[in-house]
Amino acid sequence: MVANRVPVLRARWLTQTFLSWPYAAATVQALLPEELVVDEFEDAAWVTLTPLLMADVRVLGVPALPTLAETNLRTYVRGGDAVWFFSLDVTWPPLLAGRVLGVPYHLADLRVRVTGDTVRYTGARRTGGAGYRLVVRPGAPAGPTELDGWLTSRWRAYSRRLGLLWETPVGHESWSPATVSVEALEQTVTKAAGLPPPRGRPVALFSRSVDHAWVGATRPLRSPYTSNPRQGGRT
Predict the structure, then answer these.
(1) What is this structure's pTM?
(2) If you write DSSP's letter for every residue of 126-194 in order, what string do you get?
(3) Which tens digit of pLDDT belongs to each residue from 134-174?
(4) What is the SS3 assignment for 32?
(5) Domain residue ranges in the chain
(6) Which distant-in-sequence residues (6+ apart) come within 8 Å of 228 by Cβ?
């Protein structure tokens, strides 16, 4: 895990669903900056769509915020258990300031509704037309598989802007995954990212609550690697 240098945002992550699909590594690599190399699990790159709620949100220097919805589309890259975001859809306009550092925020209309044992997510970007509709039915708690841990134990995010690679540390407590049944799914978020349509049903997980999550201060990097990233190897 990355050291908690300067937490600039603290929150609880609630009602979070992970939908993950395997892709050919070359397909995903073509969408990454040249400094980054896609990470693989069982000879595949993975792309994950993740809608959630952020509660008890506290941003450095800003009064406590109401509960916010967010949806991100991400893949996984070498160099310290990291992620690369294709997009982050948010409802709070000030977050768009992150675009200065290359973080791909989009203002969107997002809703999360819990009715009985069913969770309904909807999202529509204000510009560009990307969106989704997802209905899931969470099940019993389940011990994480090796793939589950690989997908969710990520402690930094990279972005690129102004000719530089930027690193943002992320931390959270251990989360308790649950099984989840996907009842309905329509989405154009992967298409908007330049990806071909995902094949087959996604690997799906659900998390009811992660009570202590934080995002640290972003800093510029020369490279996430101690050696040539095209030669592989993590720091």
Answers:
(1) 0.91
(2) SSS--EEEEEEEEEEE----HHHHHHH---EEEEEETTEEEEEEEEE-----EEEEEEEEEE-HHHHTT
(3) 999 999 998 889 999 999 999 999 999 989 999 999 999 88
(4) coil
(5) 7-109+142-178+196-218
(6) none
The two tokens of residue 140 are 């019993």
Which tens digit of pLDDT belongs to each residue from 63-119? 888 999 999 999 999 987 999 999 999 999 999 999 999 999 999 999 999 999 999
Answer whether 168's CB lies under 8 Å from 156's CB: yes
In the chain, the amino acid numbered 118 is T
Distance of CA 233 to CAs 20, 33, 227, 228, Å?
24, 17, 8, 9
| CA-based nearest residue to 37, from 26, 22, 23 | 26
Any idea which fold 7-109+142-178+196-218 has? Answer: Acetoacetate decarboxylase-like (2.40.400)
Per the listing, tokens 């690679």 go with 165
CA angle 64, 155, 166 (to 5 degrees): 85
The phi and psi torsions of 46 (rounded to 5 degrees) equal: -130, 145
- Work out the average pLDDT over 4-16: 85
